[in-house]
Amino acid sequence: MAELRRRWPSLRRALSVRGGEWFFAVVGLPIAALGGAYAVVVVYAGALLSLTVLGLPFVVAALLGARGLGALHRRLVGRLLGERVEAPTRLPRPPGLLARGRTVLTDPVAWRVLLYLVLRLPLGVLGFAAAVALPLGCGWLTGFPLWVRVVEPSARPPGPLVVVSVVSGLLLLLSVPAAVRALSGVNRRLARLLLGPARSQGRVRELEAARATLLADSTDRFRRLERDLHDGTQARLVGLAISLSLADDALSSPTPDLGRLRVLVDRARAQTDDTITELRGLTRGIHPVALDDGLDEALPGLAATSPVPVTVRLDLREEPDPAIARAVYFCAAELLTNIAKHSGARTVGLAATAADGRIRLTVDDDGRGGAVLGAGTGLTGLAERLAAVDGALRVSSPRGGPTVVTAELPARLH
């Protein structure tokens, strides 16, 4: 009894079905039949009319209608199955009827919707069978002795046949929820695969988002640079000019005070050194001077500045494009900074390889772990900046460590 109570939640989940899934299976058959008929008519009639003047206009109108049906099915899948499918981008509207017709005819989204409608028909039949026909069959098998008595009151079915019928009906009844859930899962995957944006459109969206992030980041960097130059470097240069002016006044006097003159010259020299140091720090964020000698020289130099000991392993057989090298350098700098600030690590490993047109940067540490890619963290911004150059960031950081962050980028920008 205790074992049954312990397993009851899992058994309950196994025997339960969401109301939306059941409703989708029941009403899905007529909708799937209409959609499948639409797709077959479009293909068949389009092929027949292709030799006439009406062929292309018919196919164009049918493909526009397919887009509308795709939106309807996305809403159904979202409302009933809880699967949110991202809507594809709208069709561009180039000037001219011929150009617009060509755009519709080459629209991958509409053709994928037609394929979805064709595949949805057998799934609709199976779903209706699982949600309606199978329970009815279970009821008939379970009530087999009763049906025999109703049809022929004097007849008695054989005992073994009654047992087999009732047991089979109960077993089939227990399998109904699993069948409905399995078909719902197939419908979700099919909708994700065929009703969302085409892969090329999804890639365009990713690149547009990455470009917007990169532009915003660059704008923010330049604003900070302008503010630092105005508030810091400019003030130092003004102080330097004042010190030199006072030194000039001291030299112009009939009896120069050599002690005061030396103080002013020493102050001017210190201000010059501070200004040069500040300018180097500002320009390092635009283009690191260390990259002038290549990544194989820049990364060890960067690791040498880390407060946590870093072991560097390089295998750079190819020299990447300057933009890629800059992205790798700043990625390594950001990761080493995060490790020093947040990880509590004692040792860090930095490895970079470049071969076969790809460059991979791996930074691992023995810290406390728990780094997460997402939720507005610095790693998310780093991943977005890498995506702007067609790169990707992967993070493995279980609680307690170790943490391994891998960045992969193309060695060349096409």
Please provide a written account of the structure.
- By secondary structure, the protein is α+β, with helices and mostly antiparallel strands.
- Helix content is 68%, strand content 9%.
- It is built from twelve helices and five strands.
- It has helices at residues 2-14, 19-49, 55-81, 97-105, 108-142, 144-151, 159-194, 199-252, 258-284, 295-304, 322-343, 378-387; strands at residues 310-316, 348-355, 358-365, 392-396, 403-410.
- It has a five-stranded mixed sheet, with helices on one face.
- β4 and β5 form a beta hairpin.
- α2 (19-49) packs across α5 (108-142) and α8 (199-252) packs across α12.
- The longest helix has 54 residues, at 199-252.
- It is elongated and about 125 Å long.
- The relative contact order is 0.07.
- The model has no long low-confidence stretch (mean pLDDT 76).
Task: Briefly characterize the structure.
This protein is of the alpha+beta class. The chain has twelve helices and five strands.
